[in-house]
Amino acid sequence: MNTEKAVIFDLDGVIVDTAKYHFLAWRKLANDLGFDFTKAQNEELKGVSRVESLKKILNWGNKELSEEEFNHQMKLKNDNYLSYIDKMDESEILPGVQKILDFLKENNIPYALGSASKNAKHILEKIHLKNSFTAIVDGTDVSKAKPDPEVFLIAAKRLQRNPEQCIVFEDAVAGIEAANRGGMLSIGIGEEKTLFEANYIFNDFTEISIEFFKKILKK
Fold first, then answer.
1. Does 148 qualify as catalytic in the annotation?
2. What's the Cα-to-Cα distance from 11 to each of 64, 66, 67, 113, 123, rounded to whole Å?
């Protein structure tokens, strides 16, 4: 189809559900430090960098760590998380995602990953999607966390598109805000009561028809 648009996907909660693995790894860290960590708290960490996430968790647990111990705990958490994602395969691609990726590929519409995760490339390798993206922007490429739009602006540049030509799929409030601040069209994947600032909201990709997708690509 004839369009100048491009698409940017977040990773966690959009392409795959790694939030469950983050939860298990963060909960182990909190438990090892002597306090608990809930699924509700885990939701608040969506789209937040690892450093800022640990700061939040320590604040919830009323704990203070030296810089050396802080860095040590971050590494322990990441090692634990990596042990989970090392077992991932393409079966963990969320329902309906492949349909959209296939449509984009068939119509030569470029698409990028825009994720805060420093493990993004590793995850894409495990689920056999790394080579399908036109560009990958992850936590190693950015200095500012969402809701700053930096990650999406870098992705737009690598896709050779202006921000207003880009459509962003996000599951986090911070990510939706980042897309909006970047001047892009935002599509929320998740609950309407949480992602109400998105231009469009769907519970998951199975609700997104190709006809709808064609319509927004022409806008």
1. no
2. 31, 31, 29, 7, 9
**Under DSSP, is residue 106 helix (H, G, I), strand (E, B) or coil?**
helix
Tell me the domains of the chain and their CATH numbers: 6-16+90-218 (3.40.50.1000), 19-85 (1.10.150.240)
- Is 102 an annotated catalytic residue? no
| Catalytic, out of 12, 32, 79, 102 | 12
Lowest mean pLDDT among 84-88, 149-153, 159-163: 84-88
**pLDDT at position 60, please?**
97
pTM of this structure: 0.86
7 and 102 in contact (C-beta within 8 Å)? Answer: no
Q: Catalytic pick from 10, 36, 79, 86?
A: 10
